[in-house]
Amino acid sequence: MSAAWAIYRKELRVYIVSPLATVFLATFLFLAGLFFYLGVTMTGEASLRIMMGNLSVALMFLLPMLTMRHFAEEQRAGTLELLMTAPIPLWALLLGKWAATVTLCVALLVGTLLFPGLLAYYGDPDWGVVATSYLGLFLCCNGFVAAGMFASSLTEEPVTAGIVGVLMLLPFWIAGTAAEMVESEIARAVLRELSLTSHVDGFSRGVVDSADVVWFILFTFSFMFLTWRSVESRRWR
């Protein structure tokens, strides 16, 4: 675990001094404030439901841009070969990079606690729903970071990696809409299972379904495994 901890600290230091992370934080908080304002003014409810639903979609576009440098930049700079030949287990490299980005996501979510505070000051929010909504966003962050890392491992161009990451996640967003357009019940059921929105909606309503939690865990693990296979294959090139 010491190797994973070293990678984790190194990646966090990179984020702290990186202007990309600052821009990401500012953009996310701006969107959170905008969605919060629109949600409260449009519905008249002391609720974060609108904000949380829109933030899960925003993260799908923003996180691949944050993770795009993980492996693509290392490949372009020639430092990935050094990491691959260093006495660092591949799982430690992946875990350290993933955990550092998830930590940044937690900082983002902490920054949005201002909005539940405003609801508590002016109204009486359901704190159970607030807690489950944040759990849903946290699970989204885990999966989106893993998907972004996989995209970054496929190319040497960070911008290309960011675009590929977004395109990789888009089908999971539109699967729910596509499910309503098909006639086959089997296809509809499959698309609903693949749909990101169908698994996020429960959290925003205050429902923690074990099936949704398992879906996000499998989603994250699958992309982490694909990243491991992608990076591992470079040792034989």
Structure description:
This protein has one domain. Helix 3 (49-67) packs antiparallel against helix 9 (158-179) and helix 9 crosses helix 10. It has helices at residues 2-17, 19-43, 49-67, 69-77, 79-85, 90-111, 114-122, 127-152, 158-179, 185-194, 196-204, 210-233. The protein has 12 helices and no strands. The model has no long low-confidence stretch (mean pLDDT 84). It is globular. The two termini are 28 Å apart. With 237 residues, the chain is mainly α.
Outline the secondary-structure elements.
Elements: H1 2-17, H2 19-43, H3 49-67, H4 69-77, H5 79-85, H6 90-111, H7 114-122, H8 127-152, H9 158-179, H10 185-194, H11 196-204, H12 210-233
Helix pairs in contact: 1-6, 2-3, 3-8, 3-9, 3-11, 4-9, 6-8, 8-9, 8-11, 8-12, 9-10
- The SSE string, one letter per element, is HHHHHHHHHHHH
Helix content: over 70%
Q: How many structural domains are formed by the residues?
A: 1
Give the termini distance in whole angstroms: 28 Å
Tally of individual helices:
12
Report mean pLDDT, rounded to a whole number: 84
Major beta sheet, specifics?
none
What are the low-pLDDT stretches, counting only 5+ consecutive residues below 50?
Answer: none
> How much strand?
under 5%
What would a concise description of this structure say?
This protein is mainly alpha-helical and 237 residues long. The chain is built from twelve helices and no strands.
